[in-house]
Amino acid sequence: MEKYLDLTKYRRIFLRDYSVDMNIGIHDYEKIKPQKVVINIDAYVLLENTISLHDDINDVFNYDYIKKSINKIISNKHIELQETLCDLIIDKMMEHSLIFAVRVSTEKSDIYSNAKGIGVELIKVRN
Question: Which residues span the domain enclosing 113?
Fold first, then answer.
């Protein structure tokens, strides 16, 4: 019998449509200037570890961790593949002890004129 994650035990923290200009791509024309990449993240933290009875940031997951981690990963560095970008982001998210599971997607919106975007997505769950 398959096991399913009981999502009622988790709080979902999300970053939606975070748009960054970054150096990414394998083609010469992509290495000339930064490209727009849209990043989405869903991080699941145990609800019992993120309840604040006193309305205190120290009692919960501080979601600034997500944005700061992304900015550090993309700063002053050229990344060839979206797969690599996803891997770097998801690995950084899983370094945080409160995160049990995470979904990361990246999307380039300026690649195909007849498509809103092209991207990759990765999901990781802690054992």
Answer: 7-125
Count of other CB atoms within 10 angstroms of residue 111:
14
List, for residues 48-67, the tens digit of each pLDDT value.
888 888 898 888 889 999 99
CB within 8 Å of 4: residues ≥ 6 apart: none
- Determine, yes or no, domain membership for 57: yes
Distance CA(22)–CA(71), nearest Å, equals 10
**Residue 5, token pair as written in the block:** 């994650």
Instruction: Give per-residue pLDDT as tens, 63-111.
Output: 999 999 999 999 978 999 999 999 999 999 999 999 999 999 999 988 8
Domain total of the chain = 1
Question: What dihedral angle (degrees, nearest 10) is formed by the CA atoms of 67, 8, 127, 50?
Answer: 50
Q: Is residue 63 part of a domain?
A: yes
Does 2 fall in a domain? no
CA 40 to chain centre: 5
User: Following DSSP, what letter does each residue of 78-119 receive, concatenated?
Assistant: -B--HHHHHHHHHHHHHHSTTEEEEEEEEEESSS-TTSS-EE
